[in-house]
């Protein structure tokens, strides 16, 4: 619209919704304005100049204008499409889950530099570094919860204070580490058993340098324990499920 002030921002598409004949509504995560809804008119039309920018998980620079509570796309220029994801269905499904989870943990019109940086790094780890999805998933989940205000306390047993429990357990409801023998018997919920290696990885994720978040390795058993703990903690704290996670799991389920 002529004369309307423009806003230039970077942003990643968390979700795209088709509307009318050729339009889309984009849920865009930006560093300064946080999560915003953008109407991309003509984004589904053949020859649209910003069609690539208007697809899920596209990181782009946008020129927008605002009318009322809505933003409208005027221009879009792609910065990163994470093509490595789009060539691997498992990785792409996990990327969609990361986007849905990030959408759930970010706020409309609130600065989101840290969650945005974390999402971009997670997608880069899958797409370019080709880190194993089974390692990236729990690290991404736990660290996103940390930057969103749900950081668990895992430096020592919350009951007796010992730093290295003989049998460590994560209380996913309280978000604390404890010994198996402290605070009651271990049950299927809200406590999840760990081991020495999975606890070390958990501490690396929670307290370590974010730039080295995915620079660890675990054996299959310890990695499975870390994944169960991360997912159980996320479920207990957010009290909801995610369709994209269900789809990702369906892809990795062993066939009969």
What does this protein look like?
By secondary structure, the protein is α+β, with helices and mostly antiparallel strands. It has seven helices and eight strands.
Write the layout of secondary structure elements.
Layout: E1 6-19, E2 23-30, E3 34-40, E4 59-67, E5 70-80, H1 83-86, H2 89-105, H3 113-127, H4 133-147, E6 168-171, E7 176-179, E8 191-193, H5 196-207, H6 220-238, H7 243-252
Parallel strand pairs: 3-5
Antiparallel strand pairs: 1-2, 1-4, 2-3, 4-5, 6-7, 6-8
Helix pairs in contact: 2-3, 2-4, 2-7, 3-4, 4-6, 5-6
List the helices and strands in order.
Answer: EEEEEHHHHEEEHHH
State the low-pLDDT regions, or none: none
Strand order across the largest sheet: 1-2-3-5-4
Largest sheet: 5 strands, mixed, barrel
Q: How much beta, percentage-wise?
A: 15-25%
What does the overall shape look like? elongated
- Please give the number of β-strands: 8
Helical residue percent band = 25-40%
What's this model, at a glance?
This protein is α+β, with helices and mostly antiparallel strands and 256 residues long. Helices cover 36% and strands 23% of the residues.
